[in-house]
Amino acid sequence: MGFFIIYDLCRGLLGRWKRLLAAAVFCIVAMVYLQFQARGLAAASQEAADISAADCLLHMVHGMEPVVLNEQKRFELPVSYLGVMVANAFLLMGFLHEEMHGFGVQIFIRDGQRHRWMAGKILWNVLAVTSVYVMIVLFSWIAGGGGFRPNAVLCEKILMFRNVIDFEGTDIELFLAALGMAYLSSLAFGQLQMTLELIFSPAAAFFAVIAAAFMSVYYVSPLLLGNCFMFQRNAIFLEGGIKTGTGMAVAAAWIALCVALDFYYIKRRDIL
Amino acid sequence: MKQIIRMELARAFKNKAFYFALLAGILLALWHFFCYGMPLIRNILDVYTNAVGESYFDKVKYAIPVTQVWMGTSNIGTELYFFMMPLLGAIPYGASYCADCRSGYISNIVTRVSKAGYYRAKLLAVFLSSSAVCTAPLLLELILCMCFAPVMFPLSGSRLFPVFDSSWLSGLFYSSYSLLYIFIYLLFDFITWGLIGCISLAATWVEDNRFAVMMAPFIFCFGLHVIAGWIIGDSGYSPMVYTFFPKLYAKNLPVIIFELIVFAALAVWFVVRKRDEGI
């Protein structure tokens, strides 16, 4: 099992350094954007716009408020939310397929244990998503200069996150809650992508995941995993929003279903 | 030359990936039609069944033109389609060059036809398949809307359309030649998405992974969207925005034309460099 982990880490993560670099570049651009916006806010309104790590993290995971699609209101793409989704999906895309049709088959046959190979891939999936979030937290920490207190003015004016102060916990709890929900949702998306890639193709899996993420923008529903990601749509901040427990349960259910399908499929697949 | 073009076009249009991408696009178009178009069309039925409005004046006032229902000129629910198109356009044939190199097909084919002919045929096939996948669902939905909604000329004072004075060719849209506007719209999108699909060929210079090459147009367009929105501060420069023609503003036209020239240059550069390269 250890061999699989090291192999997947080297080939699946370090070997895909260009994709990790693309995700890192996106995080850096996001932080720079927030810095410029905060300075502009401070200059325009004379209000303090000190950024904290919580602001930077919320910038990445806050999503957007529910879309009211009518002819008068302008719709803007939630770039940070879609960026994190695309970064994760792009990092995960294609590795399982390459392994199933390439060198991985050799390892597969020699080891003789299909479920160990599959478990290794699931673990790789978790490590890949975790690496993206480690980058997000790291860049948030660097850009925010430490500190977990969100700036309510900045959140309202720039992130359009009007009621961040409604959270009834400590600042660090807010940080962890926002991060935790997004991370769990991304794990579920990653697992779903891996399952679809195993059964159909990498392109179809990528398309399905990105389409599902985009549909979550239009519809507020716990079954659409993107809503669990978007902290702004949590029931704490939005009436009729996604409860934390419900969101976590749905994400866990998706992960469990996908893992079960993976093991079922790989056990019956004709690898030759 | 004709033979290789015919072969490449057959490979591009007669494969499962093309059907999948086309089906996905059609489903997105149908989703918009049934979620946002149908409720508007039902208003017309309500008028004629006297559910709303009693006078002839009310009937005239409540008519819904095709341009209000169609996804290309509707105010709502259009973003998903234009966001996903760079992805869908490259799926049918974007990674074919990588696949040909890996399988050795290219070594066989260039002994039978000229390298330049092969690369030109490849470029044409990628361009046409990408354009077809992206534009056909729009056209299909237009025809579907025309089956249900009247072809009335849009009223500029109604504020029901996303076409403003600052939009390019807005005068044409709000005239009796709105169908010409739609024709120019579809032609522009046909060319733009075809050129965006060709980015996958240019991406073979930096990446040999088939799927990364296939995703290159989408990643490139998304990167442009991030730069346009966050760095420049005007998302109107993003292909994911201006391919929705009402958001193609006249002031952005020079930059957009420059972008299209860059896309075309990347595609031509692929042909020129690969033609001179050894296999």
Overview of this protein structure:
The complex is a heterodimer of chains A (272) and B (279). Chain A has twelve helices and no strands. Chain A has helices at 2-13, 17-45, 53-61, 79-92, 95-101, 103-111, 114-144, 152-157, 171-199, 202-218, 225-229, 244-268. In chain A, helix 3 (53-61) packs parallel to helix 9 (171-199) and helix 4 (79-92) packs across helix 9 (171-199). Chain B is an all-alpha fold and 279 residues long. Chain B has one domain. Chain B contains 14 helices and no strands. In chain B, 46% of the residues are buried. The A-B interface holds A 18-19, 22, 26, 29-30, 33, 69-72, 75-77, 79, 82-83, 86, 90, 93-94, 97-98, 202-204, 206-207, 210-211, 214-215, 218 and B 17, 20, 24, 28, 36, 75-77, 79-80, 83-84, 87-88, 91, 159-160, 207, 209-212, 214-215, 218-219, 222, 225-227, 229-231, 235, 240.
Oligomer: heterodimer
The proportion of residues in beta strands of chain A is under 5%
Backbone shape of chain A: elongated
Q: Biggest interface, which chains?
A: A-B, 33 and 35 residues
Arithmetic mean of pLDDT of chain B: 87
Question: If you average the pLDDT of chain A, what whole number results?
Answer: 86
Strand content of chain B: under 5%
The termini of chain A sit apart by 23 Å
Q: Write down how many β-strands of chain A occur, each being a DSSP E stretch of 2 or more residues.
A: 0
Supply the helix-strand structural class of chain B. mainly alpha
The DSSP helix count of chain B reads 14
Major β-sheet annotation of chain B: none
Structural class of chain A: mainly alpha
Main pleated-sheet profile of chain A: none
Sketch the topology of chain B as an H/E string, one letter per element: HHHHHHHHHHHHHH
Provide the descriptors you would attach to this structure in a database record.
heterodimer, B: 279 residues, mainly alpha, 68% helix
Structure summarized in a few sentences:
The complex is a heterodimer of chains A (about 270) and B (about 280). Chain A has helices at about 1-15, 15-45, 55-60, 80-90, 95-100, 105-110, 115-145, 150-155, 170-200, 200-220, 225-230, 245-270. With about 270 residues, chain A is an all-alpha fold.
